[in-house]
């Protein structure tokens, strides 16, 4: 059955985030294109028209559609483009509570990792997990994200660390994506740490990634990007270059975890035209002007700083003021950032990194879309873009980062379907994973909350 076109009306503030087709930088990040008392018309999964409610009701396109139209009265709420969470690690099976308590008693992330905890301690359980359970974990994470306004997600592997288990992780991401109405971009992060069977022989593991995993992942079309954790205790720049050369040969995009715990040279990576450099806490000051001249996005993930209890946060102000295109993401993962909440990340960006609420929203929408090469279809509310929207029960968009620790997202619109935030939350029994259920049923579209009414002239 073809879904009817959808008209959202009575939006107190519609943040269109319209603007240049390039990644947003400097003052552009502060311009979120607000329309007050607005309406949005969507049809066929796309945004068709955007404007003040009174004009929308007189619009010939709206009049022509008349009875076919489903109207959703936003009752004075705020509407944004769905968040684009451009950095997440959802393919894991269990929280890391031992690491959590060790850090509370004073051990650092690197000390815990060096003692055998950290990323390596998530590997055994992942290797043992069934594909269905792993898919269930990923889907629960996607639904938690959607419940808080996220409609596009980048999802990495990285806790399998063998050809079989990295492929299983990417397949789980693919199965979860097929059951979720939003958009998922997959990334192979086999180079997360060296697994214990290759301890002391990292190059052997890099060989496996280059010669076995990458060709297989390419052949099965399991990932669009390849990521490497470049850090002491993880992979060197030279190892990353080998992996990125293979990624380039396979026609896959490149992104990297860099400068999270210590500074790293960036220029040897530029020849791969990475779409994004992520974390960037310890970026060298002299690299900043270089980055400002390019379309590489610096993806900042302050949830990791919060959860690791760090005093310092990524230097957002320095980067933005120098003209670097900055994105914000959750970094959802069991070790450093177990949060699916983009609104919480926005709050951290404002309070800890001194980004304005407008900058944070542009970074979490259109610049996230650029970080995934999806900016022509995602990240703004403009005619022709995908109808991915998030509705918040606030009157002013600045309340989204202001109220922290609770979610004011009530509704997520993806395509022409409307999802109630409570129904998406796994704690409310939102998802039952059975192979053949269409995603529409799994996510229980709340038709009841749609106000249908005849449009008057
Ligand atoms: O982005 N730094 C590398 N990867 C993750 C942490 C993964 C983990 O500890 O499980 C991050 O912070
Ligand atoms: Fe990460």
UniProtKB/TrEMBL annotation:
Recorded catalytic activity of this chain's protein: 4-imidazolone-5-propanoate + H2O = N-formimidoyl-L-glutamate
EC number: 3.5.2.7
Residues the record lists as binding N-formimidoyl-L-glutamate: 159, 333, 335
Comment on bound cofactor: Binds 1 zinc or iron ion per subunit.
Keyword Ubl conjugation: no
Gene3D superfamilies: Metal-dependent hydrolases, Urease, subunit C, domain 1
Sorted UniProt keywords: Cytoplasm, Histidine metabolism, Hydrolase, Iron, Metal-binding, Zinc
The protein's enzyme class: hydrolase
Species name: Candidatus Korobacter versatilis
PANTHER family assigned: IMIDAZOLONEPROPIONASE, IMIDAZOLONEPROPIONASE-RELATED
Name of the protein described by the UniProt record: Imidazolonepropionase
Localization annotation: Cytoplasm
Family recorded in the similarity comment: Belongs to the metallo-dependent hydrolases superfamily. HutI family.
Limits of the Amidohydrolase-related domain: 78-407
């Amino acid at each position: 059955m073809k879904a009817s076109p959808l008209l959202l009306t009575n939006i107190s503030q519609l943040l269109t985030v319209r603007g240049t087709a390039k990644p947003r930088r400097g003052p552009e990040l502060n311009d979120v294109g607000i329309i007050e008392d607005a309406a949005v018309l969507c049809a066929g999964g796309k945004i068709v028209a955007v404007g003040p409610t009174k004009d929308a009701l007189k619009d010939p396109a709206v009049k022509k559609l008349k009875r076919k139209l489903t109207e959703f009265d936003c009752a004075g709420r705020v509407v944004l483009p769905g968040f684009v969470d451009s950095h997440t690690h959802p393919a894991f099976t269990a929280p890391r509570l031992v690491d959590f308590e060790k850090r509370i008693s004073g051990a650092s992330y690197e000390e815990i990792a060096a003692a055998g905890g950290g990323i390596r301690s998530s590997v055994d359980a992942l290797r043992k997990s069934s594909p269905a359970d792993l898919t269930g974990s990923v889907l629960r994470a996607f639904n938690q994200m959607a419940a808080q306004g996220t409609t596009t997600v980048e999802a990495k592997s990285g806790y399998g660390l063998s050809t079989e288990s990295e492929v299983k992780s990417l397949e789980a991401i693919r199965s979860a994506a097929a059951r979720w109405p939003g958009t998922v971009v997959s990334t192979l992060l086999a180079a997360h740490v060296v697994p214990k069977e290759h301890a002391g022989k990292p190059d052997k593991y890099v060989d496996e990634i280059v010669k076995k995993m990458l060709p297989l992942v390419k052949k099965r079309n399991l990932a669009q990007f390849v990521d490497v954790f470049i850090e002491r205790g993880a992979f060197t720049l030279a190892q990353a270059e080998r992996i990125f050369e293979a990624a380039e040969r396979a026609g896959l995009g490149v992104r990297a975890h860099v400068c999270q715990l210590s500074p790293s040279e960036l220029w040897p990576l530029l020849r791969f035209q990475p779409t994004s450099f992520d974390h960037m806490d310890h970026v060298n000051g002299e690299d900043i002007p270089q980055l400002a001249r390019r379309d590489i996005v610096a993806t900042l993930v302050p949830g990791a700083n919060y959860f690791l209890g760090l005093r310092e946060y990524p230097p957002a102000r320095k980067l933005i003021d120098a003209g670097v295109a900055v994105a914000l993401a959750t970094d959802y993962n069991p070790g450093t950032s177990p949060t699916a909440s983009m609104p919480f990340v926005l709050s951290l960006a404002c309070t800890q990194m001194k980004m304005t609420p407008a900058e944070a929203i542009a970074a979490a929408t259109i610049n996230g879309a650029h970080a995934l090469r999806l900016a022509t279809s995602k990240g703004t509310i403009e005619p022709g873009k995908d109808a991915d929207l998030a509705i918040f029960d606030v009157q002013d968009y600045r309340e989204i980062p202001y109220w922290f620790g609770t979610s004011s997202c009530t509704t997520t619109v993806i395509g022409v379907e409307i999802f109630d935030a409570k129904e998406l939350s796994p704690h409310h029994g939102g998802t039952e994973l059975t192979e053949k259920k269409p995603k529409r049923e799994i996510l229980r579209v709340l038709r009841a909350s749609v106000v249908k009414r005849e449009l008057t002239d």
